[in-house]
Each structure stands twice: as C-alpha cells, then as structure tokens.
Amino acid sequence: MTILFVQSYLYRDTGFYFESLKEFDSGMKRLHAKGIEEVEIQFIDGEGYEAKLFDAAHIHQGSVHEWFEHLNDLSEYTATQIWYLLDLGYSLQEAQDKHEDVLLYFGSVRDYAQELIEDTTPNIPEFLANYIDYYAIARDMQLGGEITEIGHDIYVTNALEF
Question: How far apart are CA 92 and CA 98, in angstroms?
C-alpha cells in the first residue's frame, strides 16, 4: 500500500498522511476549513517502482485522483512500462494507451543476450558455444540502441521503436 503525504504551503499548518482518495478528500476538507487551498503531494512509502511512477506522472493535488484510479495498483512490469514512456515525454494518457508496446527484460544484459542468441539460433554446435562472447554482444546492442538500461538490471528490449 502506497502512503502519500499532503504538505501545506503555509508554514503554520502540518499536513496529513493518506492511503486513499477518500482520506485525501477528508483531509483536504479540513484544510479548506482553515483557508488552505494549495498543497504539495509527496510520496512517502511504497515500492521503488511506484515512487518512480509517481514522480514521472507528476502527481499533484489536481491529479491525485489519477493515481488512485489508474496507477496505484499496477504490477511492477506495467508501472515500469508507463514510467519509461512518461520519461520519454509521452502524456499520461498516451503512456497508459501505449504501455503494452514496451518490452522489458528483468535481469543482466549478458543473460538477455544469451537468451536472445539461444532462442534465435537453436542449433549452436557445442564446440562453438564456448566461444560466444555474450557480454560483447550485449554491449554492442546497448551501443547500437537496440536495448536501453532504465534501472538496475531492467532493460527495454525494443528501445528503437520509441
């Protein structure tokens, strides 16, 4: 469960923590009663991929409903696809519509290169298999832009399509 915090721009008031849109609305009613209109929304606790998505989506008091209605309960894979597209400059709606086009690989770049070679070349002779340098293949794929590292051991494998 993601924990967010509302911080008033006025120094005289402390904010409040919330985990749902209902809690947010309730807390904002209390702030409005004090004459406080503008606040900052901060990500406090949750998974690392949720924090990246929260930042990439530029969640603020006017868009916090988007977080709870569309983004809060996504899998790590889907959240990573969306924040990748947001970081490329896509709008939130475009990223949500296009996220399935992003292909991700979780693991080392060497393992990705090895899997790719073994899947596309099924009959590699044993005497030759020991001479294949998967690190070099992976490095060339990165330098050529075919794959892009977007996090520790997280790669977009069709990076040239975006």
Answer: 10
Residue 14 has pLDDT above 90, yes or no: no
CA separation for the pair 78, 71 (Å, rounded): 9
- Give the total number of structural domains in the chain: 2
| Residues 3, 153: Cα–Cα separation, whole Å | 26
Same domain membership, residue 87 and residue 9? yes
Whether 82 and 32 map to the same domain: the answer is yes
Q: Could you read off the pLDDT of 117-160 as tens digits, one per residue?
A: 999 988 888 888 889 999 999 999 999 999 999 999 999 999 99
Q: What is the pLDDT of residue 9?
A: 84
Q: Are 48 and 13 in contact (CB under 8 A)?
A: no
| DSSP notation for 41-63 | EEEEES-HHHHHHHHHTT--TTT
Residues 86, 33 share a domain: yes
Range of the structural domain that residue 122 is part of? 104-161
